[in-house]
Amino acid sequence: MITLLEAANAIQQFEHGSLTKRISAIETILQGSDKQACETVFPSLSVKPILLDAAFTLKQTAGQINILIHAIGILLSLPHILQDNEVIEALSLGAGNTGRPFDMETNRRIAEFKFTNWKGGSESIRQNSLFKDFYLLAEHETTKDRCLYVIGTQHPLKFLKGRRSLESVMSKNKKLWAEFQARYGNRFAKVYEYYEHRKSSVQLIDIAKLVPQFTNGLNSEGVEEDV
Question: For a Cys staple, 188 with which of 39, 109, 193, 208, CB 3.0–4.6 Å?
Fold first, then answer.
């Protein structure tokens, strides 16, 4: 198994600044080539076995990126959002709650963090995840503030005020759908109906306005993706 640095160097040498252009060029170069010609030209194109190992190594590492972004994102947020005399009681820094009900609980609030860069198109997975966090915050019995931190509120609010079917939103989470039905029955059919009922319970907060680093993340697309 090669190191991450070796993998990055191998990929960088191969792509020559643009992977798309590099692949297109190789397609042209190899047109009409036979076995011997391929073996001859491959070294000059940086096509070698280590390249596949490098790709697998980076893919495996990429699977941990969301966890890293989620953890670091919360940690960098803390100095900006904690109030005087507010004390952390529990943190769940991994992607997905690790046995704790929320990403953060203090003596004053419970909170969830969504470090996703919404595009505004068909984003059902992100919408489903956002609704779950909103619902669990809204229904939790507590006198503390309930906060849902997102990067930009435009698209999340558009979804929460939209007419998407609640059954569709929770179709991949049968446990959540069963719980919702047990609590509300057929009272609500659309997302906006439930949101109107509970919008005053949860504060939807743009974390990018509070933490400067997230502006850089938006510009570089370096934000967490929901899975």
Answer: 193
